[in-house]
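ok so for the tutorial part 2 we go from a plain amino acid sequence to predicted C-alpha cells. step 1 is just haveing the sequence, like this:
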Amino acid sequence: MCFARADPLKTDRRAIRKTIIRFAMSKPTHQGEDRKKRIHHKMSPRKRQWGAEKRTDPLSHLHETPSDFAVTYSRIAIVISIVFWLMYLTSVIIRQMIDGPKDYNFTAQTIGYTAVMFFLTLSALVYLITRQGSLQRFKKHIRTPRRVLEEFFSSNQPSITVLIPSYNEEVSVIRKTMLSAALQEFSNIRVVLLLDDDPFKVKPEDRERIDKTHALPAEIETLLSEPLSRAQALRAEILNAERKGGEHVLKIAAAYHSAAEWLEATAEKEIIEDHVDIFFADQVLRSLAGDLRAAAQDMTAALQRGVEFSNERLEQLCNRLVWIFNAKLGFFERKRYISLSREKNKAMNLNSYIGLMGGAYRKLETEDGTVLMPAEDEASADLVVKDSDFILTLDADSILLREYCQRLVYFLYQPDAADVAVVQTPYSSFRGASTRLERLAGATTDIQHIIHQGMTHYGATFWVGANAVIRKRALEDIVEREFIGGFEIKRYVQDHTVIEDTESSVDLALHGWRLMNYPERLSYSATPPDFGSLAVQRERWANGGLLIFPKLLKLRRERKHAGRPLHMLEFLIRMCYMTSIAWSSVGLLFILAYPYDGRLLSPLVLLAAAPYFIAMAMDLKACRYRYSDIFLIYGFNLLLLPVNLVGTFKSLQQAVTTKKIPFARTPKVKNRTATAWQYLLAPLFIVGFSLFTMWRNIEGENWGNAAFAGFNAFTASWAIVAYIGIKNMIVDLWLAYRDWLYVEVPVKKASKKKRKASAPEPVELAPEPIVMAGQNN
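step 2 — the prediction. this is what the C-alpha cells look like for a chain of 777 residues:
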C-alpha cells in the first residue's frame, strides 16, 4: 500500500496560517476595566481610607528620559542654593557678628543657628546633587536587548542562590516572594528560605503557619512541575530531531502559548486581598504570560516572512521555556544546629547559610543539640549545601520582576564591572496603598530610589538590603571569623549594627570592591501600612549610621595612602547618608524648641531651601504623586522626629556601652501594629509647643517665627489625624497605660514532688525537615 507524501513546505505554510489565526483569536492577557472589576469583586472587603491611592499599576520599569528643562533646572537649583546660602552668611550672619550685640547669649545663638541651618542646607544640597546624578544616568541608560541576553546565557550558565531570610512572616507573603524568584529565567537557580523561627519553641497558634511554611518549597516545585515537564520534553524532542524546520518552530510557539495560558490560569487562582496580591498576579504572572505570548507571535510572524531558524536559535528558545520553571527550592533552619550562630538578626541568618555553602556535613547528636561536622564526601553526608557563583539576598516581603536576575548578572559579566561586588535595583513601592500613611511612605521610598541611582553616579553606592545580587567571591574577601563555644562563626554581612547592609558596603569598599545600582525598576518591597510598624522600621534605619562613620574615615585614609583618594562628592554623599538623620533630627528639634533671636531670620534661608522643595515636588509628580504631597511629607517627618531621635540616641548608647542594640524586625501583619506611647505623646507635644510659640511670637510681633510655628502646628496636627488617627491614638495610649498598671505576680517555686505531679504532658518538638525538601541545597 502506498501513501502520497505531502509537500512539507505547503504543510508548514498551512500550519503557520492556522497558528497565527489561533494566536490572534486566543484569549489575551487580562487587562483593562474588565480585569479591574474582576479584581475588586474578588478582593476581600477592607475599608480604604480617604486619600489612599486608587491606581494599582506600577511605574514603568524604565525611567523616562529626562527633558532638557529637567536637567537644566537641576543644575541651576544647585547653584541657587549655594548662592543664597552664601548671601545669607554674608548679609545676615557676618553683619550681625560685626554690628550686632556683643553679649555671650546672642553670639551663642548666632553660632548655634548657623550650624543648624548649615547642616540642614547641606542635606538639601546633597539631595540636589544626587538627583542631578540620577538624571544623568537615566539620560544615558540604554536597555540591553533581550536577544543579546539570550545569546550570552546560551554560552554562559552561571549559578545563583536566592536567600530569603524570614522570621514570623505570613505564608502568603513568603509564597509570592519565593514564586517571583523561582520564575526568574535562569539555568541554574536555587531558592532557599532561611527560616529564623525557633523550631523547638513553637506556640500552638503558630504551629499551622510554621507547617505551611515548611511545605512551601515542595508546593511551589509541584506547581511548576507541570509546565517544566512539558518544556523539558519539547526540548528533548527538538534537540534529538535530525532535521529541524518550520514545524519545530510552530511546536515551540505552541508551547509558549500553552505556558502563557498556564500562567494566566495560575493568576486567576490567586487570592486577591490587597494591592500587593494584585501586583503579583499582574506584574509577575500575567506579565510573564504576555511576554511569552508575544514571543510566540513573533516566531510565527518570522516564519511567515520566510525567516529560517538556526539550530542554536531553536535551542535558545527551548532553553528559555525550561529555565523559567526549573528552579530548585528548599528551606533551612539554622536554629536546629548549636554549631551555628544564635544571634537574633537577619545578618547572622544569612551568614549561617553562606558559611555552609560549598560544603558537605554530617549531623552529630549531642546532649546540647545537633552539631554540623564536616563530612569526608557528599556520599557520606547528611547535609550538602551547594555553592554558587552569585548570591541574591531577598527580603521575604519583596517581589522581583521577571528579568531581574538575567539583567543584573549580565551586567556583572561586563569588562567594566569586574570589580563590582553588589548590583541591585533599589526597591520601589507597591502602588494602590489602602492607607494614607502607606501611600506617603511609599512616596518617600520612590524618592529614595531616585537618590540611590544618583549616588551610583558619584561612586557612593550603598547596599540596600531588600534585594541585591552579590558576587560570592567578594564576600570571601570581607569574611570575619571567630570561635564561639568551640565552633567557628563566619561573618560575611556585618551585624555590629542593625543596618548591616550599610556597614558591609564600607567593608567591600575597603577591599577595593564597588557597588552599583542598576537604573531600572525591577524590584518592589512592602511599605508599612500603619504608624506602629513604620516607627519600628524607621527607628532601626536611624540607628547605626554614627557607629559606621569611623569606617568611612578609615576608607578615606586608606584610599589616600594608596594614591586613589576619595572624590570630595563621594565622601560628602556617603557622610550624609550615614549621619544626616542624626543632624537633621537634632537640628529640627532646636529650630522647633529654641526661641532664636528674630534678627537671625531672613528670607534668604527660605530662598536657599526653595530649590530643594521644588525639586522634590517635581520628583513626586514624576513618580505619579501630587505636587502638594511635599507639604504632607513635611508633616510626616515631624511625626518621625521622635523616632529618628530615639534611633540616634541608641547609636550613641551602643558607642558608649559597646553593647549591641537588639535587631527589631518590621512587623508584617494584616492587622494594625500598636504604637509605643512615646511616639504618640511626642507629636502632641510638638503641636502644643508650636501653638505656644506662635502665641508668644504674635504678642512680641515676631511675625516670621509666628508663621513658622503656626505652620508646624497645622502640619503636625494634620499628620496626627491623617497618619495615626485619633481613635487609634486613644486605643494605643490606653493599651500602654493598662500595661503600665499591670504587675506580673511572681510564681512561687513548688516543691520537686508537686512539680512532678503537676507536670504537663510533654510537647512534641518540631520534626526535622526532610533533606530532599530543602536541606540538600
